[in-house]
């Protein structure tokens, strides 16, 4: 399976556009991107703020009605529920589907209780685990239909 024009953005506590850096095959560029993740503060992602930045500055350029947006995140404790709900709704209006992959879903007793994820879930078309290669492989039939 391949995707036509993959674009990558990531956020720890703020959004960073990394598509160009991830295209580089040289280890130094890729390691700069991964080091920025390791140096990130322990604070949970501010999904509402990051999505607002993405929606305002990037979405019109990289998202259209056939785009599938894939979010991979486990820790989401953003207390600004309205911002997360508003920005997820705006993102949902622009794209075809939103897929949210959560490595924590496989944990025993896990439930999406954080305010940020509760606000985001109504706008998500697929909420699935992403903790093993098997869980990612299980997504292929769904993603192939998109």
Describe this structure in words.
The chain has eight helices and five strands, in the order E-E-H-H-H-H-E-H-E-H-E-H-H. It has 146 residues and is α/β, with parallel strands linked by helices. It has a three-stranded parallel beta sheet with strand order 3-4-5, with no helix packed on it. A two-stranded antiparallel ribbon has the order 1-2. Helix 3 packs parallel to helix 5 (81-94).
Q: Which secondary structure elements does this structure contain, and how are they paired or packed?
A:
Blueprint: E1 9-11, E2 15-17, H1 19-23, H2 27-38, H3 47-57, H4 59-62, E3 68-72, H5 81-94, E4 97-102, H6 115-120, E5 126-129, H7 133-137, H8 140-144
- Please state how the strands of the largest beta sheet are arranged side by side: 3-4-5
Distance between the termini: 11 Å
CA radius of gyration is 15 Å
Please state roughly what percent of the residues sit in beta strands, choosing from under 5%, 5-15%, 15-25%, 25-35%, 35-45% or over 45%.
5-15%
Secondary-structure element string: EEHHHHEHEHEHH
Residues in helix, %: 40-55%
Global structural class: alpha/beta
Mean pLDDT across all amino acids: 76
């Amino acid at each position: 399976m391949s995707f036509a024009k993959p674009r990558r953005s990531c956020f720890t506590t703020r959004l960073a556009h990394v598509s160009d850096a991830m295209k580089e095959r040289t280890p130094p560029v890729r390691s700069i991107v991964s080091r920025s993740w390791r140096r990130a503060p322990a604070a949970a992602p501010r999904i509402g703020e990051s999505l607002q930045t993405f929606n305002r500055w990037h979405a019109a350029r990289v998202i259209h009605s056939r785009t599938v947006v894939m979010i991979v995140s486990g820790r989401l404790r953003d207390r600004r529920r309205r911002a997360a709900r508003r920005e997820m709704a705006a993102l949902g209006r622009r794209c075809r589907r939103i897929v949210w992959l959560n490595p924590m879903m496989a944990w025993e007793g896990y439930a999406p209780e954080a305010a940020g994820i509760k606000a985001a879930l109504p706008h998500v078309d697929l909420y699935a685990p992403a903790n093993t290669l098997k869980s990612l492989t299980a997504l292929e039939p769904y993603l192939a239909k998109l």
